[in-house]
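Appendix B. Chain record.
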Amino acid sequence: MVDSNVILKRIGRIRKCVAALETIRRCHSKKQFLADEMVKAAAERHIQVAIQSMLDICNHVVADMKLEVPDETSKPFRSWCRTS
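Structure tokens predicted for this chain:
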């Protein structure tokens, strides 16, 4: 059974990452962003965490539905899409 708390926790994490990325976008011009390695690293990390959270959700649903266990990062999305 899909645990809605797991899904909601990951969605919350994705929302926090998106909010942080929006803050970075608002506070830095493109030129400032590209010149600042720390800001770029922070943005990259927020993107990584958001993607990992999406993968966690997909894997949770794929496991619950007893679908093929993905062996690569992109496969959870493909497995889930085939059943939708």
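Further analysis of this model is presented in Appendix C.
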